[in-house]
Amino acid sequence: MAVEVAAASWPALPALPSPATAKVVASGLAAELAYALDGPFHFLLPDAFSANLVAMRQALTRAEVDGFVYYAKKANKAAVFVERAAAGGAGVDVASVPELRESLGHGVRGEHLMVTGPAKDPALLRLAVAHGALVAVDSLDELDRLISLALTEPARPARVLLRVLPGAQPHSRFGMSEGELATALQRCRQAGDTVRMEGFSFHLSGYALRPRADLAARLVDLCLAARRNGLEASRISVGGGLPVSYTDADSWQTFLTTQRPAHYHAGKRFRTDDFYPYHSPVAGAAALRALLVTRPHNAGSTLADLLREAGIGLALEPGRALLDQAGATVLSVRGVKDREGYQLVTVDGTSLSLSEQWFGSEFLPDPHLIPRERSAAAPAGVFPASVGAATCLESDMLTWRKVSFPHPPRVGDLLLYPNTAGYQMDSNESSFHDLPLPPKVVVDRTDRPRPRWRLDRHFT
User: Fold this and answer.
1) Which of 126, 263, 344, 434 is the residue whose CA sits 20 to 30 A from 316?
2) Which residues lie across from 386 on neighbouring strands?
3) Are 307 and 346 members of one domain?
4) Residue 155 CB neighbour total at 10 angstroms
5) According to the model, what pLDDT value does residue 375 have?
6) Under a CB-based contact definition with an 8 Å cutoff, are residues 118 and 138 in contact?
């Protein structure tokens, strides 16, 4: 039998409300899709993506900064988000030949592509030059390959940003040291019209804004120095890393201070440092606004002021921040076991659809229990349960934490994991046990009494 516990003794982490997600559930669409698709699925809310993009573009405009947003495609493979990026006047950040081809195929202009990643495939560099994409060059040998390729495309120069090794993260595997940058700049000058050196970029781990502002200010100085040596150097890229807030501040702090191994299946231990910061006081477009008004170290002006005064454009490559509230994951309960003080639920999906497991962590926002049928006789209270996958791996747990559900989960119920569009769904998914990958369903009219849906048009 399900075990009811005292609510006050059980940590919870409620997700911030999403009216569009609530509409999908209340309309009965989630249950109907689970029946029709006969397995786990993701639903996508592209209107949220478009709203996030508009907010970021407005933040740049209001700061009077010449900026351009590139959607980091690795955050989600769905075609609809590339289509919305193109329609919204944004570019796409790609790191492979298939990503580049798919972006072109869904309406993104070649000059609105940013090509990133280390040790790029020569075929990727060739396509980048052919279509006029901007390439973030990560090493000297990559720059040499790009220059050689550009010589075969005399009508179109190779457009490059030189990626800088962050001084605050000297062990990063991305970027070039000061000595390598000096050599790269010399080679760009020697290449003449074959190369358009448009500026600098960086990759910085973490979500703190001040280190980004400090490094961005350094890149402004590098641009000014490069201009004095005859190079264009007209823009910098600060990459991604804009935080997303999944829950409110009080819930997050309460969770961090009260959670302990007893709250997890098998006494699983997580350090708080292992968790994504599921609450951020400034997130998404607000974080971009905060970045622009930050005064870098030893600077008398804000970052926005520095960019304007130097006539330098700002590029950014958000992934998760553009996908905030843009989708959710739905799984069906296939089995329920009673354990001492909690239940162990098995669903029809795997932890590969919640990619925090990739980092040895946990996707913490509480999943929502959607009963197969509502019964007045169903007990109400707090019923803790952990969620395991339908595989034969002991470690394949979607949620190690014993989540406090308002009703005991039953076979046939649905579990909805909220706000999973950014880096959760599809980053790690594979056809383990020959199970098909969960399909993506686009829900693009949640303003109607009955939401309208279709399957995503991802080419592969």
Assistant:
1) 126
2) 344
3) no
4) 5
5) 65
6) yes
Examine the domain organization and report whether 16 and 96 are in the same domain.
no
Instruction: Summarize pLDDT for 83-135 with one digit per residue, the tens.
Output: 999 999 999 999 999 999 999 999 999 999 999 999 999 999 999 999 999 99
Residue 38 C-alpha from the chain's centroid: 27
Answer whether residue 271 is part of any domain. Answer: no
Q: For residue range 291-347, what is the model confidence (pLDDT) as tens digits?
A: 999 999 989 999 999 999 999 999 999 999 999 999 999 999 999 999 999 999 999
User: Tell me, what DSSP letter sits at residue 264?
Assistant: B
Cβ–Cβ under 8 Å, residues 279 and 246: yes
**pLDDT of the residue at 400:** 96
Two structure tokens written together for 181: 């940058």
Query: pLDDT band at 10, cuts 50/70/90?
Result: confident
What's the start-to-end Cα distance of the chain, in Å?
44
How many whole angstroms separate alpha carbon 103 and alpha carbon 92? 7
Whether residue 51 is found in the same domain as residue 96: yes
What single string gives the DSSP state of each residue in 308-365?
Answer: HHHT-EEEE--SGGGGTTSEEEEEEEEEEEEETTEEEEEESS-GGGSGGGGGT----S
For the record, the structure tokens of 213 come out as 């502002």
Residue 137 is inside which H or E element, if any?
Answer: strand 134-137
Q: Are 385 and 409 in contact (CB under 8 A)?
A: yes
CA dihedral 13, 17, 22, 24 (to 10 degrees): -90
Owning domain of residue 229: 47-245+280-323
For residue 152, count CB atoms less than 10 angstroms from its CB and return exposed for 0-12, middle for 13-18, buried for 19 or more: exposed
Q: What letters, b where the CB count within 10 A reaches 16 and e where it falls short, cover 407-416?
A: bbbbeebbbb
Q: Does 266 fall in a domain?
A: no
Q: In what helix (H) or strand (E) does residue 415 lie, and over which residues does it extend?
A: strand 414-417
> 275 falls in which pLDDT band (50, 70, 90)?
very high
Q: Look at the chain and report how many structural domains it folds into.
A: 2
Please tell me whether residue 3 adopts helix, strand or coil conformation: coil
Tell me, what CATH number does 191's domain have?
Answer: 3.20.20.10
Tokens of 303: 């970052």
Task: Give me the residues paired with residue 388 across strands.
Answer: 346, 397
Residue 187's pLDDT band, with cuts at 50, 70 and 90, is very high
Is the same domain home to 208 and 120?
Answer: yes
* SS3 call for 129: helix
| Tokens encoding 13 | 């982490």
Is 313:235 a contact under the CB 8 Å cutoff?
A: yes
Q: What is the pTM of this model?
A: 0.95
Statement to judge: residues 307 and 337 lie in one domain: no
Residue 158 CA, distance from chain mean position: 28
